[in-house]
């Protein structure tokens, strides 16, 4: 990434130098267009790529998309054995100011609760709105056979209200 940034700055410098050293009758505003386009891209890409220049981050609840079915938000097998690890993947979403954070996982009886969090840049003034997909992984064990439930607690987009997405799993004896 650093090589690209250095090259962009070189093109901008060359364009500005050519504009400034041209005789007055040869100066055209169109000669500055490549430099201005590259400068704009460099500014927005560096602002959107939070974390490179010492911005402050904090953990916040992750965003869940209510338009997705529960099996798209929570990926796991439909059946598992008691006392064996079950791999669960939770899909969350963010923008240019979000990075995948950690997930808080708790098991109480036959209910697994997963609370995914993302690192959010709180000092960024500009972020892109390109949708990013994060996958939070957890491995859990159910203590006994029966019907299990996996609950994911997060912020429901676009209103950022706290919500729960649930999915069922059948637990069999080993």
- Total tally of structural domains: 2
Instruction: Please mark out the parts with pLDDT under 50 across 5 or more consecutive residues, or reply none.
Output: 46-53
What is the H-and-E element order?
Answer: HHEEHEEEEEEEE
Query: Oligomeric state of the chains?
Result: single chain
- Strand percentage lies at 35-45%
Q: What's the CATH first level of the largest domain?
A: Mainly Beta
Query: Whole-number radius of gyration?
Result: 24 Å
SS-based class: alpha/beta
Give me the number of helical elements. Answer: 3
Mean pLDDT: 80
Tell me roughly what share of residues is in helical segments.
10-25%
Enter the CATH topology name of the largest domain.
Immunoglobulin-like
Compute the number of strand runs.
Answer: 10
Shape: elongated
CATH architecture descriptor text of the largest domain: Sandwich
Blueprint (SSEs and pairs):
Blueprint: H1 2-21, H2 33-48, E1 57-61, E2 63-64, H3 70-73, E3 74-75, E4 79-81, E5 85-94, E6 98-108, E7 111-121, E8 132-141, E9 146-156, E10 161-172
Parallel strand pairs: 2-9, 4-10, 7-9
Antiparallel strand pairs: 1-7, 3-5, 5-8, 6-7, 9-10
